Amino acid sequence: MNEPLLEIRSLSAGYGSATVIQGLDLSVRAHESAVIIGPNGHGKTTLLRAIAGLVRASEGEVRFDGVPINGRSPERIAASGVVLVPQGDGLFPEMSVEDNLLMGAFVSSSWRRRRESLERVYSLFPQVKERARQQARTLSGGERRLAALGRALMRTSKILMIDEPSLGLAPIAIDAVYGAIAELKERETTLLLVEENFSHVRGVADSFHLLEMGTIVRTGSYDELVKDEEIASAYLGSAVES
Amino acid sequence: MTDLVGILVTTVILGSIYGLVAIGMTLIYGTLRILDMSQGSMVMIGGFVAWGVLVSAGWSPVLAILFAFAATFLLGTATQLVSVQPLMGRRNSIDFEMITFITTFAVAMILTNVALEVFGPEQRNVTPVISGSVDIYNGVNLPYQSIAMAGVAILFMVGLWAFLGMTRWGMAIRAVAQDLDAARLMGVPVSKLYPVTMGLASSLAGIAGVFLGSLYFAYPSAGNLPLLEALIVVVFGGLGSLSGTVYAAYAIGLIQAVTEIFIGTTWDLPILYGVIIVVLIVRPQGLRGKPSEARL
Questions:
Q1: How many CB atoms lie within 10 A of CB B291?
Q2: pLDDT per residue as tens digits for the range B113-163
Q3: Which domains are seen in chain B, by residue range?
Q4: Given this model, what pLDDT does residue A2 score?
Q5: What is the mean pLDDT of residues A142-162?
Q6: Contact call for B178 and A78, based on CB within 8 A
Q7: Contact status of B182 with chain A (Cβ, < 8 Å)
Q8: Residue A78's pLDDT is what?
Q9: Domain spans of chain A?
């Protein structure tokens, strides 16, 4: 009954001969919002890219919705309901914001409902609607992130993965992005976030997973992790003090 | 005034046909990052299709265009599958642009030599798509064939622009050109999109071949000069930029028209290439090319 939506077992993945992810286990249940924390360069982004199929797994298994998906092409994985907002947003720079959103609905089942989806995204992010005709490369950092989130919502997703939602944004833009993420959580979207900024993510996370040296070394709720002094001082420092 | 009309008309006609031959090359470079050397062969095959349909079978010019479109679409798709697709997976670990330059060139050589075996070396006359001409201004005489050629070329270029700008698959081609990983994350099946894009681009060269065949002749090496011209147009316009390709095609048409009318046809090529050297020294990225990414 309660089989995880995403289940990763002994996953190893990397670039060329460099293994970044090593023997990693992780599971995310439907409607859960899971957050991966950990130091830079230890494989957080690689993990999301491996789930999405952009990085090939050398060992282990990724099961999604009960089916093994590792080894499938990114486009097949995308079509099965895995949505990734990559680091740097991955907007198409020379396309208008609206065309970018429409590309989010490329998968046939979503393409039929693209007009309704567009209206929904525009009502959720009025700033994005104001920029609809502009080329994506002319947007500010905050607008880009919202446009990328909006594009992710153009498709029916079973899991939405976002790589560092607050990276490089001004505080006011971070509030807007996390406002949107909180709303997604309200709607019971399954979320898998990579985030450095603990103070923002605390309010939306059901579980935290600490990724070090390419593997998950601790898993727990905020209250559980905060009891571990080492983790608290290394990753949750500012949040604990406040 | 007569000179001016002459220049304008010549520019539009030459520019349109250059544009049609070159725009497919730009589409391919923008999407797959390869310089497709088989594009000249598609022009040659378009010419032979025109000869077969118009002369051998005696059918209508519309059928010649349709058959040329279909034949070169299939051949372009096959060329991608045979000479490019097997290398796609390794494109980051090999000199992909150089190797595909050679593999597509090899396809061009095979097609040329097969045509030589099948049709022989002689030049075949292709009936003009439309015969007759019209005096448009004070002795500036324009064959209907040239008007049709420019019209069809412009129609297909506008059609391509609308396809890329307004349709689901057209947008997917642009998306792949601008950010391959992001396009795959959207669910765009690139392994199907690449061959179809190359087929589409080749079919534009094939249609140009129908007109060039009847303007000159159909013969096995008829694609060599158009290939060279297309290469010059795409580099001049900025590799991978569709608008740059169109500007460059008409700019080159204008330079040739001006030289032909004021200096004489023997000087048009030296002057044209002189201008190209100067432009590329000043703007190595071409008229509309952007130094780093930025495609289609």
A1: 8
A2: 999 999 999 999 998 888 899 998 888 889 999 999 999 999 999 999 999
A3: 2-282 (1.10.3470)
A4: 67
A5: 94
A6: no
A7: yes
A8: 96
A9: 1-81+183-242, 82-156
Residues 6+ apart with CB under 8 A from B231: B25, B35
Sheet holding A57-64, edge to edge: A18-28, A6-15, A57-64, A67-68
Q: Which fold has domain A1-81+183-242?
A: Rossmann fold (3.40.50)
Question: Is A71 within 8 Å of chain B by CB?
Answer: no
- B27-49: pLDDT as tens digits: 999 999 999 999 999 999 999 99
The nearest CA of chain B is from the CA of A197 a distance in Å of 25
Residue type present at position B260:
E
What is the side-by-side strand order in the sheet with A215-220?
A: A82-85, A159-163, A191-194, A33-37, A207-212, A215-220
CB-nearest to B187 from A79, A91, A94 is A79
By C-alpha distance, the chain A residue nearest B173 is A103
> Do B187 and A90 count as a contact with CB atoms less than 8 A apart?
no
Q: Which amino acid is at A148?
A: A
A155 reaches B (C-beta below 8 A): yes
Residues of A in contact with B179 (CB under 8 A): 90-93
